[in-house]
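Morning. Coffee machine broken again, so started the prediction first thing and wrote up yesterday's gels while waiting. Chain of 313 residues, entered below exactly as on the submission form.
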Amino acid sequence: MALVSTPVNLAPPGAIEGKLRAIDGVELRAARWAPEGTPRGTVALLGGRGEFIEKHFETIGDLLARGFVVAALDWRGQGGSERQLKDKMKGHIDDFALYTRDFGAFVGDVLSPICPRPWYGLGHSMGAAILLMIAHERPLPFDRLVVTSPMIAIANVHRPKLTHFLIEAMDAVGFGGAYAPGGGPTPIGLRPYEGNPLTSDPVRFARMASTLRVDPSVGTGWPTVGWLHAAFRLMREFADYEYPLEILTPTLVIAAGQDRVTETRATERFAARLRAGRFLVVDGAQHEILIERDRFRDQFWAAFDAFIPGTEP
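Came back before lunch.
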């Protein structure tokens, strides 16, 4: 599907967009932009759960202005990529390992043939967790990695072991494809701005919503029981003391001080054990640092510019 541009959320010009297929045949949407002049390298932009490339048009423009080629991917089950269930609004996955197939196709069909090195990764929330998972299993093809609000642990889960047990039980008895308790098909970007857990910036929230109103098909509703079960399994691995010690890619971890989606304290504990890691908390920011108010985004970009491109580790 073509990128959706709206009057308040214009697509950066010059996009090369298209479809690619993961090794298991799942169709994925990706897009690539090039800056004016000689590129400084490529930033691979990998979003969070339920996100879509259009949500990050402003960030893509910021990266282009810095001289980077930008390549972006919609993970399976969301955005313009193939959905996993008949109800296309359900955010579903059976195992986070399946996302490695999407990443492999992205590297093989987008980064390798048309994106100049050096390569850098920028992942948010679920996308950040997927990149950390892959970096733990094998070296990432990125010289450096920046992750924002990584999904190391979910916020405000007061009894995580019990919650995980209940979700696992629901999945085991056949409710894996059902919406997780309390959820439904409406994307969070189409819910009221007041009280939203993503951003304190009403203008940027409205930009995101404008895309969903023009083309609701890019949106994703609540996650399924199966997705939540898979997420808990991965987060249980992240809690292992040794896990971050085995990630060798130089990584900048940026957390939000007022995050109500992911647990900032768990993120700090994880980042402290990275062998080549740096950690920053943007005080006052909510979960979506890249669509937050300027004073929070400015802190992100200052840290990004100090870390990318950086020097050899």
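Residues 16-307 form a domain with the Rossmann fold fold (CATH 3.40.50.1820). Going to sketch it on the whiteboard this afternoon.
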